[in-house]
Write a structure and sequence with these properties.
mainly alpha
Length: 58
Amino acid sequence: MAVPGKKIAFYVLVVFVLYVIITDPAKAADYVQIGFEGISSAAKAIGHFMTWIADGAK
């Protein structure tokens, strides 16, 4: 029985995330903050774009 590559990659990623959280919680918190800031910036950009479209793309 062969294990699909995606499943192995997922487990490796989970182990890495747990390792980072356990060994350096402050750095892990920084990574989470960076991720949320990126998501927030993307949402703001989409909002500005949609407002621009709703205003007639002026």
